[in-house]
Every structure is written in C-alpha cells, then in structure tokens.
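Narrative summary of target 7.
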Amino acid sequence: MTSSAASSRRIAIANPFCWPEVRRGSERLLNELSGYLARRGNAVSMVVSALDPARVVTPDGVAARVVPQHRGPNWPGFFDAKIGFGFRAASVLGDGFDSIHCLSHFDGFAAARAAGRPRFVLHCVGIPARAYFRRLPAEWLMFHRAMRAAREVLVISEAAREALRRDWGREGVILPPPASIDLFTAQPKPPPANDILFSGSADEERKGAALLARAFGVLRRDVPAATLTFSGAASDATRQRILAAADPDAHAAIRFLGPGNVADLPRIYAEAAVLALPAIWEAFGMVLVEALAAGTPVVGCDHGGIPDVVSDRRIGRLFAPGRLRGESDNVAGLVVALGEALDLARDPETSARCRAHAAGFGWAALGPRYAALHE
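Modeled conformation, tokenized:
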C-alpha cells in the first residue's frame, strides 16, 4: 500500500542497536517498522549504532544513518554504548526529519536535544517502572527528559501504561509491537499431540523455565504421554537446573532444541499442543502471538503484558503469579492451566480461534496505527 499523502514524509526510526547484530524485540521492530513505512512511500532512515557499520542490514528503500558506537570503558549506570548513542545521535536526528520514532529513551533523549526540536514519539518497549532506574542515574535523566519532550509516549501493554501513569505521572497510548505472522498462519497444524513448548531464553530466571519443569513433573501423573520441549538459549547450568526441578521420572520426556534456526519456528510452534510462557515482568510476549498464529493455544502468567495477549479463554489460560522470587512460585496454578490448555488443544475449533485472535496483533491490523503517527 502506498499513501500519496505520505510520499514526501522524511521519517527516522531510531534505536541504539540494530537487527540482526542484536536480536531483541526493539531491534526487530526497528527493522520491520522501517520497511513498512518505506513501502507506504515514505523516505525512511534507520538511525542506529553498530560495531561494524558495513554489516547493517536495512529493508528495501530504507537508508542507514549509523552513529559511531562507543567502544571505550563502560561505567554501569553512568556511561556505556547506549548512553553514548544518546549523546551522539542528536546531530543526526536534527537533520530536518518530519517525524521521529524513538524505540528507547536513549534516542528519545537525543531527539529532545536535537536542533530544531523535531517532533518525535517515544515508544517504551519495556515496562517503565521507576525501580528499574534506581541504580542507573544517567538513564533516569535520559528517560525523564525524553518522556517530557515527546509529543506522544507509546507503551506496549496495559501493565506498561499503568507503570508510566503511576511512576511518572504521564498518560501513555497502548500500541503493541506488530507480529509478522504470515509464515505462522501458513504453517499446517498437525493433529493434536501432548507436547508442551517453551520458547525463549531459559537462562533468564524470570522466564520461569524451572517452574515449568516442576509443573510438568506434576502434570505427567495425570497425562503420562506429555512431553516438554525447550526451544531457545539454555546453558549447561540452566539445563541441569531445569532437570533438577523436574521429577526424575520426567527427565526422559524433556528435550532441548537450543537456539536453532528462526525459519524452523513456525513448524515447531504448530507441532506443539501448547506453548507455555510462565514469565514474570514480560513487557508483551511476542512468542505467544506467534504460537497463536500457528494455531497453538497458550499458557501465560497473569503478570506484566501477558494478559493483553491471553485475553480469551478460548485460546489459552492464565495462572496467578503467586510470590515473585526471581520467578513465579505458583506450581499448582500452572499445572491446572497446562491441563486446561491441553484440553483446548483437542477441540477442533481451537486452532482457527487462535489464528483469528493472533490476526489482531499482525501488521495488517496494527500497521496503519503506526503509519498514522507519522503520516
């Protein structure tokens, strides 16, 4: 789709790092949003830093404005590559752009300092809790200035909007990160099995991999054919911690795929009976949307941004977080949620419901809202 009204718009999308040198949600959104706006006829520039500028990958029609990356000593909380980007990117963002989309408070700070005071939106892709900045005074100052200068502050979930209101006294607009779901919706959904899938970094304790292993050991007493698969980073120490959390009798039913190939994810998600993300402090939960797009029901913790995705009991289940000690401790609640989600997986109508729900988080649904911010 090309918008004639947007053909003359000069738009910058800014972030300290870029895809695929750094592979996180904000870097992926940087890449996909730049391409989406360029296809609509805008003159789009990605303003980023990179260790090797020659390897910066941009979508068709998108220019790269690469800021030199700080490579000297780092002083946590006071100066590092991200903070350095906040100071160095101001000169680039003051180059006459009609609109700027900042994916972090570092580039938001740069935009607030840029010549000509350009119009920019600040997109908080995490949960902007004041406690996060307690030991990061430089970041606190950057976030505060960016938030006050932005014409709009965007957040990606209701939990994030509440944190912005409670801790900073500013209202935010909820705009989730769109998911590229076409490859997942095109993946055939095989007959239901009993495999429970965890997708993400098991090395992050808050993701709840050990909690899931404990719940899985309990679940197998009622569903002995159940299996558990971990897809994503899991160090040797993490694998041992996961196995130690599960009943010894369940060890043979647990497998680790490792990070693997991104191209295999649609098939892995479709082959699972249920995807479980028992994480706390999750800003959104993109893997949940991708699993739903593959026709797979999901289980998530009723914490952070996950309830924004798992908002219909016909496509998944939530469980209460319980006490938060690095991760949730509600094993019993997770066991019940997993059992009910396995029942959902056996319902022949669940797959279509999951895919219809996921469509609301795709680019076709959310892309026009992003375009409206800048066009």
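The chain has two domains: 4-175, 182-359.
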